[in-house]
Amino acid sequence: MTPDIPSSVLESLTLVGSTKAIGYLPLQTVTQVLQLNVEDAIAHAAACGLNALSIGPQECCINSGALYVFDAAALEAILRNGVATLEQVNAPTDPTMFVRFIARYWFPADHPIMPIIRTAFADNIRSA
Predict the structure, then answer these.
(1) pTM to 2 decimals?
(2) Tell me, what's the pLDDT at 9?
(3) Which of 99, 100, 105, 110 has its CA 20 to 30 A from that of 63?
(4) DSSP secondary structure letter of residue 9
């Protein structure tokens, strides 16, 4: 990674843990801007005890596809709390399948699943 790239670009992934269950970056950002190898980023996430999925453009609402990093235990707790909503909208309750589900579709702000997604992404967390 080049030194002139702000660390805030990586925050979506580096803040993932018990308080931010999911983060993502477009694959184009990972490979072209950050100049990282996707497989290396996945291995790094695994070494940190996290899960990671590279989801290509054919299965993702992000044009270039995206790299999703998630804390399976933290996400599972969030999904457990939102199980009634997930059942209502026919969304999966398994963490990996949920990540694949939200990667595929871009939901409108008023969709019933959005509070769960916002909680999983910890939209209220920003670096100081």
Answers:
(1) 0.89
(2) 74
(3) 110
(4) G
